[in-house]
Fold these 4 entries.
Entry 1:
Amino acid sequence: MILDAKIPSGPIEQKWTNYKGHCKLVNPANKRKLEIIVVGTGLAGASAAASLGELGYKVKAFCFQDSPRRAHSIAAQGGINAAKNYQNDGDSTFRLFYDTIKGGDYRSREGNVYRLAENSANIIDQCVAQGVPFAREYGGVLSNRSFGGVQVQRTFYAAGQTGQQLLIGAYQALERQVALGNVKMYARHEMQELVIIDGKARGIIARDLVTGKLERHFGHAVLLCSGGYGNVFYLSTNAMGSNVTAAWKAHKNGALMGNPCFTQIHPTCIPVSGDHQSKLTLMSESLRNDGRIWVPKQKGDTRKPNLIPEDERDYYLERRYPAFGNLVPRDVASRAAKERCDEGYGVGSSKQAVYLDLFDAFDRYGHTEAVKKGIDNPTKEQIRALGAEVIKEKYGNLFDMYEKITGENPYEVPMRIYPAVHYTMGGLWVDYELMTTIKGLYALGEANFSDHGANRLGASALMQGLSDGYFIIPYTIGNYLADEIYNKPISTDHEAFAQAEKKVQERLESLLSINGTQPVENFHRRLGKIMWDKCGMARNANGLQQAIQEIQQLKKEFWTDVKVPGGLHELNPELDKAGRVADFIELGELMCIDALHRNESCGGHFREEYQTPDGEALRDDVNFMYVAAWEYKGEHQWELHKEPLQYDVIKPTQRNYK
């Protein structure tokens, strides 16, 4: 199989413009004859469905939640990047492009990343026009803040709930198309199988999660916008329902999976408090904009943080990376926190945490507010109180959330944080048009692998999802559908639909018939522990080989001893969960295979055997400058295909944030 990324020729700053000027178009009358299925209604799915409905296509949108408003995009907190250069601090489209390539440790495509940077400014304009309440400066202009891996302020935000506000904007656009009849919304429906006819994606089998009924749906094209697979680790910052099932069904039908081992560990998560937990909560990276991260200089120090003097604190990110300090990329910050805790400097009862301290920012903002208010010789208490008001306006909902979860008041004591699984850079392999290796099947947003390489910069997930949905797929899908206007809709009575539905029916029945002794949750938790211990923040060959064997054994045990209560033709969340965990188990095996084959460290993929003398990721550009795209061949069998990465504009170097 030859992987053709279909990157347009010409200078990088003209590739997307040239593509749009030469791609095929579908006239409005013909668009009304074409049907498109969109699976997932987060930022990528909602924006795509809304845009395609606005263009005149007949769209069917599916989400397993009870409303598109509950998509996991709502959980994003800190912001969305765009190269507007409002601060006049040196930002540009090229700078955003460069930072993203470097942040991804030179494992992403130049063409895709430049297009993302190019689209970023339009995204902000689109969202402002929709009424997204971005934070503004006193004079009314949009405000910006910094995020990791960059030295400019380019992150637009709405307090600590940016994802929610952006999703409401996309949701409004989607619901407008629903009201006009251009989009038909199927909530509480989960894709169970992909239907392929004559080598092209032609529909899906979906299950009504309320009634249990299986449904057949035709589409001239299918868009998978179903998010990432971080829940393969069980404990992650993802919503508990987030899963890989839609993408995995596509993979087992021939869509290649790109770089599945590239997982992002987010450095600012509330630490695990016990075995009872089934989910972790993120503290926005925006807190690193004003916060300082530290541990005591003395091992095993049990003093309360406020009692530890300044000269006995190790601000280790500022010490190790003076140029970027607390705003190093997520993979770098995460490994640094793990290293300090592993060395015995961790804090809290578990000793698996570090402090995130904003009290310097309290004082800095407090002094500024005192000057603005004309307060001469303010007391320390006045300064702290004035600064707290500014912090509350910027991060108030995050502080409230932290206190509710931990019982500690972050206005009085530093937050405790520790890295956790957050985002997956791997996903279905797609070309420049966002099409997978199955014709007519597209993957958007976190469901594809395309834009972030081995590590995603903060505030870039929302940017990619909206870029794919609002500004890319409306062009690229037309290039494909222009040749489909002669093909009439295929009846769902077609044999391919019947076979796909039968396959789903048999799988669901087999899950119910096992009637073993262990609940689904047990298997998910055990899988997560294997993945975190042996394919998490650090990996090595021996651990990965063990993990593969353990996961294969876990799969056997799952299919012989899982207990799924309830029936098939009813509301049955345990059955839904069982199907998702079965897919996670298979994915986990592939992730370990991918991590084992990549004998280098890059970004979030840190192989302990491959590191620089000072503990940084050590790439091998000679042997691994490619996308690893895996083809499913059968149980426990995958074939590797390689898409070489070519850098014409940026020269790959050892990342340096010092």
Note: The chain is about 40% helix and 15% strand.
Entry 2:
Amino acid sequence: MTGATVPLGGRAEIAGRDRSARAAVATMYRLTAGHRSAVAVATGLTLVGSALGLAQPLVAKHVVDTTGRGQIVWPPLVLLGALFLVEAAAGAVGCFLLERMGEGVVRQLRHGLVGRLLRLEMREYDRHRGGDLISRVTADTTLLREVVSQALVDLVTGSLVAAGAIILMAWLDPLLLLLVAVTVAAAAVVVASLLTGIRCASEHMQNSVGAIAADLERALVSLPMVRVHRAEEREAAGIGARVDAAYGAGVRTAKLASVMSSAVELAVQGSFLIVLVIGGLRVSSHAGSLGDLVAFLLYASYLVLPLSSVFRAVGLVQRGMGAYQRIDEALHLPVEPVTPRIPGDRTSPAARPAAPSPTREHPALALQDVHFSYDPRKPVLHGVSFAVPHRRFVALVGRSGAGKSTVFALVARFYEPDAGAVFFDGRPAAELTRAACRRGVAVVDQNTHVVHGTLRDNIAYAVPDASEAEIGRVIELAGLTEVVDRLPGGLSAVIGERGSTLSGGERQRVALARALLARPSLLLLDEPTSHLDAINEAALTTVMKDIAQECALLVIAHRLSTVQHADHIVVLQDGRTVAGGRHEELLSGSALYRELAASQMLRPGRAEDGTGR
């Protein structure tokens, strides 16, 4: 999707959100719902390991003081080694549990995002770029993994371990503790002043990464056009500008993080120097023992390391919030409703989703005074009305921009009319779920969607469990027999990304076979002969007559040969139905149709823009 990236979520809402560290931590904590037992066990193991670590300086103090008196005591040394090994084992198990929990949270978020993005209202895809939405599933969730797997536990255990170290340091030497506290407080002030900047820079970086993905996707999807127009350098420059923006935001994040890291490191080094100098002077003046100084230095390291992890975790949480905000905004985009817009005729909710069954009394499709606009300032349809009876071939003709593709979009329930109604077998579409309507409708549009995979995968996409006989029937009906015979491997042949190994006409016939396999009651064909030569066009015209014996057929066409045998032709002009009838009737009764017929309707079946599709 082209166009400028539109930020998801309202600016007022974003500006009004609490950006404090406390709110960020609370948000990250909510993400661990469903994984709290793993977090609790991992936290417990980390605390056990930390407690064992806190015991080690006391044992070391005993060893130093004992050896200072000329004694060697082996049990304390063995105990010290055992404490170290058990601490390492507890830390390894806790780390594994946290990493697994982080992967679980990311999996849950990705499942939610994928399900949400696949069900968005079509208007949202018009507003937002596909590559940017994809980056929220990939890059943003990856950034969150480290936050939820490590940062939250670091905050808890780091705080508790630091508190324990402070208590033991106060017991050993309150004066030295006061000096250490002054240096740590100075670092804390610096860290707090940088947190908001880190989060903002992280948001800008993630937005830039999303823009890179969106621009690159657009260029790769349109690569033949890019190369034909020698626009590689221009596209590379445009994407490069996005890369530079991401680089700038990343450098700003790194600069702020490095300042924070330096402040913490200075606090660590300052604390050790102060303890070493002041403590050494006090030992030399016999105001304290060497064992006390060794123990205090070890506790200082135990204090500084958890405090460093706390500072790092807070900064990481703020970075993660930039990614989470983008994810949260995507998770709140409007999706297609799963219930009817208005209640049906007292049918139970369980009965409403059922697709309308074909009857002779009502046409398969009817539009009644339908009005629609993509932009309220630019209406596209103005009171369109026509019907498509069962087992009839109805053609929709008109100049480009008359609104033909918009009619198809409304029939497929991609959009809802602003006024008027669409009926399926006599039932208003608003009383049916979109899924129920689509069960009976198949669409073959100009942009034939053929995906990477085998030919069988593409044909059987709508009916994955279709039998070989059913697949063979639609292959013959769509005129694909020669294509299957030509491809190495036949139906098992891999046809490449976007069907690159097939011609335009072959891709169109694959899409037609896929649509027919679903046995729809209404088939929509958008310019089905636009990629076909004269021989295949004549063959498809015959196929359409056969298809019309199985289901209702509505065809957008620009070629006279496609529509002259239709049971009924609807003529659109500027979003209005201006005429209707058979070919001969319209030639004598509609000036516009005569003009279109005189030109043989040989207008290219190009995609029309959002102002008059």
Note: The longest strand covers residues 365-375.
Entry 3:
Amino acid sequence: MNLIRSDRISRISESVSFYSLLYFLVAFPLSVSASQVLAGLCIFSFLFSLRENGPKLKQYLLPWAFILGAYFLVFLSSLVHFQEYSHFWKTFTRQSEAGDFWLALIFPIAAFHSSKEENQKKIYQFLWISFSLLLLSGIASVFSEYRLGKFISNGFHPAPGDRRQHPAGPLFGFQTYLPIGLMNTHLTYGGLLSFYLPGILLLTFQSLKEKKVPKILFLSILSFLSLWVFLLNQSKSAWLGIAAVFGFVLLGSQESFRAILSKIQLKRALVILLLVCIAGISIRFLYQKNWLLQRTVSQLTEIQTPENQRYWIYKLSLPLLIKNPILGVGGGRFKEESTKEEVPLITAQEQLWYELYITPNKHAHNDLLEFAIVGGWASAILWILFFYLLFKRIDSDKLVKGSFPLLGIGFIWVAGFFQCYLLDDEVALPFFALAGILWGRGKKIESKPSPFALAFICITFLLNTGFWIWRLSTPFQLAYARQIFAESSHYTKKLEKAVFPFRSASEEREKRLTQSIEVSSKEAGSEFYLEGCLTHRYPNPAKLREEPYSIGFYISPTAKNPPKKVRIIVFSEESFDEDKLYWSHRKFDLGSEELNLGSGWDSYVWKESIGLSKITIFPDIVFFRSFKIRFADFDPEKPVQIPAIDLGDLCDFKL
């Protein structure tokens, strides 16, 4: 009797767990809270069926052990550094990376449910529903100035103080915004879309060998809409991750793709070519009409961009890795420890104070680096081993007919070189669930090594390492540059070359002194904004700056058509932290002057004109003194040689 009752409880628990998993797939594109509740129910209810189903989990224990091992090493490191925490349990439970281990509990359970043939059809259907909800919410958010998740939860009314969407530019007369679906950030949404996008594209490609034109058109439209939303999303790390996944699939499936292509008839090939041309022209049109996409592409090869924050984050991270290579610094302590590494840089150059302050340093923005720092290198190595097994599984599953391809979950490997997706609960939880589904529905992987998956993991890792070794070899004096805003990107780039770096970069300063920077007369006559310096001095609490602000302009004696005058307006600009970075900031002019320019150096000096607090806690009541500059009095019929501009180290130019 007890055995019958136990079997009944086990079957009911298994059924509750399975349907919780299905509804979790529907919930995670819509609500973080609901998805976590359903994931918790899936895990908890499955526990009552462990007696019967526990032995069936053995084949999934190795990859799961790598995941849990990585989290355990972070916990172990935290215990070793117990005395260094001011409030251990508070910090550990709220901030530690090891606290996310529960997310991974869904991995073997999802694999178990997916391994049953009677479940696979329903899972397939719910994956389609999940993708559809994700795509539709993303498209809706493109045209909403409000963040849809909070907007809906507030009864379709914006709450006071809620951040608006990031503008993406006009499209056919409509204002568009970075798509975030119902998530809180565009990076999270980009990560979720990445799980499905490669699968949709692969299904589209597979449909080409069929004679069902409606299916081809339907999947092509889905692919186009998905790519459009994905490009607008602006998650460059996800872009790289998806590109890497496609590279892995294409290199590993050349024979399969050739077989598909050989069955495509001429008529269908022409239809495909037409669709590709339409998609290409549409993407080109979107790129030409969208300044955000243009800026993003142009930033990929530049160091002085918003992504330059990675430079500072990694610059502060590497000393932590060197000092604590075995056990790491402990969970939840990255920000505390990396902040200590800022002091030498700011002491060497005070202008970096603000730059480092607005650089988000809650984590390393690199999954492997984060776990290596907080849990030691062994923790990061366990993640590498897990991803090796993941790509072995992707390699065996990517072209299975009748299933929704989940190869997109592999995007986290390369994307994780630039973002901490494994620390983002909204992305990590679906990742473990989808990875489990992928693992369970396929055949058992052979135990022998996969040279192709191993080569992919090693090559991508080494490429990333080599890239950052090269990038971090740039001295901090040259990695920093003042923000400049001009009416054209071309003029902005020219001005960036004209502004001198810090005095310690003597060779670069000499180089810029001798170079001739030529722009059109229209550009030279337009106004540009040049970032200045703070009203208060380091450290914190900050003291009011006492010395005046000064700028130097240098015109080469050999310049043929330099400006003979410059108009300078000093304006006040609010300082802000990273959470306020995307708001509009109050600006007002403080004074203006027209300066005559001659051959050689000319200087402009401005003294503070407003009574400010003598001592304050940064960034409260701390402002920027920045400059609007416009050159004048030159021959408008000829190109203009703009002057070199020197602000010294801290708006303290001296002849």
Note: The chain has two domains: 57-303+363-467, 482-646.
Entry 4:
Amino acid sequence: MERYPFVHDPSKPFIQQVGDWVADVFYELLPAAGFEVRDEQIYMAFQLERAFMEKKAIFAEAGVGTGKTLVYLLYAICYARYTRKPAIIACADESLIEQLVKPEGDVAKLAQHLSLAIDARLGKSPDQYLCLVKLDEARFKDEQGGAQWEDLYENLPEFVNNPQPMQKFYAYGDRKDYPHLNDEQWRKINWDTFQDCFTCDRRHRCGQTLSREYYRHSSDLVICSHDYYMEHVWTFEGRKREGQLPLLPDHCAVVFDEGHLLESAAMKALGYKMRHVVFEELITRLLQGEIRESLAVLIDEAIDQSEIMFHLLEQHSEAIPGSDRKQIHLNEQLLKAVHRFRSILTAIEEDLVFESQLYSLDDYQLRIVEEHIEMMQKALSLFENSEALICWVTDSEDGLTLSIMPKAVKEVLQERVFSTNMPIVFSSATLSVDGSFQYVTDSLGLENYLSFSVNSPYDYPNQMQAYAPNLVHGGSFSEKMGIAGQLLERTDGRALILFRTHEELQQFKQQITSDPRCANMTFYYEGDQEISYLISAFQSNEASVLCAISLWEGLDVPGPSLSNVIIWSLPFPPNDPVFMAKRNASLDPFVEVDLPHMLLRLRQGIGRLIRSRGDHGIIAILCEELQQRDAVREAVLSVIPEGVTLQEAL
């Protein structure tokens, strides 16, 4: 294929030539294919030209319908070919990745209408892949789903369980390939953070490994999630030390689609998870070699101290309503146990230096143990300064899981992302609050950046009706159910219902079956099947209803299939340890933390309704706080599209 989609003149600045070609695309080539000329889109294109020219970060806030994805794709593809390195497109989650590359998605549109061969490959997170080890465990231990797991095993590619050298192989095991499994079933067989891939004798036949080999060779785009990109950043140096390739290939630019969500992804990637059973299994590997008695004693002490620490964590943790996370109440006894455990780990590390010189331990196993202990030391060291620490525990079949993350991710982002001297695009319809980007830039620690905002081109007053029904019974669940039934009947389904919590969704799922108005409607529930499959089914089955907790951003379903968006509760942040820490660090938690988070997400939720100039529909916000708190009502009114009136009567 031609390297560039235009005639390149080496004597002229390359990005300037890209800008000229992009202008031709939006003024001539795409309109000739039936696309409309959008001034907002062209304005964004000229703004991105500057960011790519100066290799700077830019906050590109463009309203729904501006076609912002097409703009950043064109620049990213051209820049990738110029630098001979792929560009990274990092989406907020895996469902948005699938929407970008679906047959009717934006990558396909550009390829079709510009006759442009685009090499776009998916770099999905590890938990989106089948784990062969966990599949075997499910086959032999899960009696309830035994036949299902056996069938799945029998349908694996032939090379997976063939002991002969692989002559022909391909990536497999993607979550998308198993749409019939619900999320709970999938968690029984997918990769998780406690899988020891380094010593797995099946890693070279693993679908996750083979997928990495595939996407590394992309010449244009690697499309991944925010989580996976930050995992790449966080593990980059460690993987190099271990002689492994980084998760993602060397790249020329990064686009963070729905960029307002990057901070939470960064915090998640920079976090640590620990379980006693995993530590015990790992540390006892050292006992398989010829080691000195002093090290063996330290290993026994470490196992005992780990048990003590996790026992205290369980004693001093408290369930958080509406969350599977338990808040840890730090106290002197617990902190002493953590410090004691760290001192034993330090002694083991010192002894391992001596043991490594005796060559009595397997070098590969020794390196794995050392890396794991180093990780635990980094995690537990945060307890030395509890002000910099966010931690919680969750229950699991294998005992308590301790999660630890640093409060601030600014330093890591500044050092490993923003100082890389490459174009970085934050793209979203919601990056600012009250016209200011400060809420997002402060959370990321970014000071030197470009920014712009353009509004949506849609005629919202004539395309959208918005309602906030007066909840006379205080917004009880039964009252909301009654209103929801009325709204669903009005549009004959064709609705997206957005819930704030999993508990709300499950309660709705249980109660809607008794509403005769909805008896003939098909309902799809997030968690029941793979999410991109649910979205496709919802779009195809016009009179259906999609119920979700994670689709506030990115869902793009133009046409009558989505004519009604019901917002069950205002999307205030959860009362979990992460946001509790943010609130504790704030002078006015409601104004500085809760309200900006809610408004950004609410704007996104509202944006799911009108996706084309031909769309019409209704938005309904079922929230008692609109009547109880004037500040909340004023804030919500500020994000309703201009010209749209928030009505009480349906």
Note: The chain has 25 helices and 19 strands.
